[in-house]
C-alpha cells in the first residue's frame, strides 16, 4: 500500500513539522520540509540531526541509519517547487483556518494525480479545510500527530465529509510504514484527544488560578496519580499556550460553555508567556530545561 519512492512534502518547520519530517525521513521516505522562513528550516534540520545523533548514542539506531535518514531529508523555501509531482502533502502550519486553506489552495493543483492531502490540525474542521480545494476534497484527510512525534506512537486519522474509504486505507498504511498506531475518527470538534486534553488543561489552569494547589503539585498529581507522562501544565508549556487558547476558543464556540478558556490562559498569552518556545509559561526554562521551583503561583496572579 505504500511506496518508499513516494515523495512526501511536509509544510511548516515548527515543532510538529520537524517531528513529522523526521518520522518520514527516518522511515526511508524522500521528504521535503517546506517553510518560508530560512531560519526555521535551519533550526528544524538541526533538531532532526540532534534526534538522530541521540538515537545513535543510545544504541537505538546505527550511524548508517542516521546518515541515511538525513540523506532522505531536503529543506525548501518554495511550496510550489516542493509540491510539484508530490505523492503526499502534510500541512502542519499554524492552527488558523485561513493559513491552512492558503497552503492547500497553492499546493493541491501541483501534486501528483491521486496524491493525498493531509492536515495535522488538532481541532479545526477537515471538511471546512477541504472545501478550499473542492476538486480535491475527497483526497483530504486529517492526520493528527502528537508531540514529540519521535516518541509518541498515536496518529488520529480524521474523515472529513468527502474523504473516501480508499484515502483512509492508504493513510493508515502510511502510518503503519512509519511505525505509528492510528485510530480513525469521524470529524468532530477537537477530535478525541484534543477535546479531552483541552478540557483537562483548562481545568488545571482554573485550579492554579484559584490557588487550589501549586503548578508543581497539580502536575505531580496527574503524573503520579494517573500515570500520565507529564502533567497538564507541563504539557501546555510544551504545546504552547497560544495554541491551547486557539483550540479552546474554537471548542467553546462549537461545543459550548464547558470549554470557555480560563482567564489565566488569556492573560499569559497576552503577556507573551507561551511556554517552552518563549522560555516562560507556567514554568521558566533555561537552555530548554525547566527551572526547578519556577511554577506560577496563585499569589502572583
Automatic annotation (TrEMBL):
Recorded superkingdom: Bacteria
Does the keyword Protease belong to this entry? no
Output the Gene Ontology terms for molecular function.
3-hydroxybutyryl-CoA dehydrogenase activity; NAD+ binding
Quote the InterPro entries the UniProt record gives. 3-OHacyl-CoA_DH, 3-OHacyl-CoA_DH_NAD-bd, 3HC_DH_C, 6-PGluconate_DH-like_C_sf, 6PGD_dom2, NAD(P)-bd_dom_sf
Record-marked site positions (Important for catalytic activity): 144
Per the UniProt record, one Pfam family is: 3HCDH_N
Give the 3-hydroxyacyl-CoA dehydrogenase C-terminal domain ranges: 192-285
Q: What is this protein called?
A: 3-hydroxyacyl-CoA dehydrogenase
Q: Where does the chain bind NAD(+)?
A: 12-17, 35, 95, 100, 122, 147, 277
